[in-house]
Amino acid sequence: MTDEGLPLATPPFEGEGTARARVAGVLLAAGTSSRFGDANKLLATVDGEPVVRRAARTLVDAGLDPVVVVVGHEAGRVRAAVADLPVETVDNDAYEAGQSTSVRAGIDAVLEGEDGTAGGADVDAAVIALGDMPFVDPETVETLVAAHAAGAGDALAAAHEWDRGNPVLFDRRFFDRLADVDGDVGGREILLADDASALVAVDDPGVRRDVDRPTDLPEGGSGDG
Question: Of 109, 126, 190, 197, which has the highest C-beta tally within 10 A?
Fold first, then answer.
C-alpha cells in the first residue's frame, strides 16, 4: 500500500480486454494561469511547441479516441494552439468556478456521441490529463490503459517512485460521479475513496511535473504565451 492507502500496480499488464477497450482522453486546459504572471502558461513553449499542444499530443500519440480539450480562459488562443491535432474542443464558460467544471464539460462531451461530438456509448474509460503537464510520456498513458484492461483497477493514477501524479484513468462507471464533482478537486476524491482505485507505477517523472511558473520551463523554453 502507498501512503494514501492505495495499492500499487506494476507493469507489465496482460489481459484479454487490452486490444478491445476504447478509452477517451480529456485534457483540462481552461485555467487562468494566475501564478504564471501576465502570460498564459498553456501557450508558453517547450522545444518550440505550446505547452497545451504538447500535452494534447501525448493523448493523441497514446491512441486515445476521442480526445477532448476543454478550454476556457483565452479559449480562442488555446483552441488555435491545438487546431492542427485530431482533437475536439469544448468551451467551459464556468471555468473560474474550479477544475470540476472542466471535468464535467469534458465528460459530457465524451458522452454526447457520434452525432454531436466525441465518444458515445462505446467509450469504456477516460484518461483525464492536465493541460499544464507537457512532460508526460505517451507510454505512460498506454500503461494506464493496459492496467485498466488487465483489471488492475477502475480508477488508476500514474505514480512515479510511489508518489501519485497525473494523468488519471476512470472507468465508465465513474462518469456520472465525475459529472457531479464540485469545486477545484477534479476526480481526486473519487480516486482516493473508491475500493477499486490503484496507483500504477511508471518510470516517468513527467507525471509529477507541471508548469506553474516561468521557472518551471526547461532551459530554452519560452514564457511569452
Answer: 126
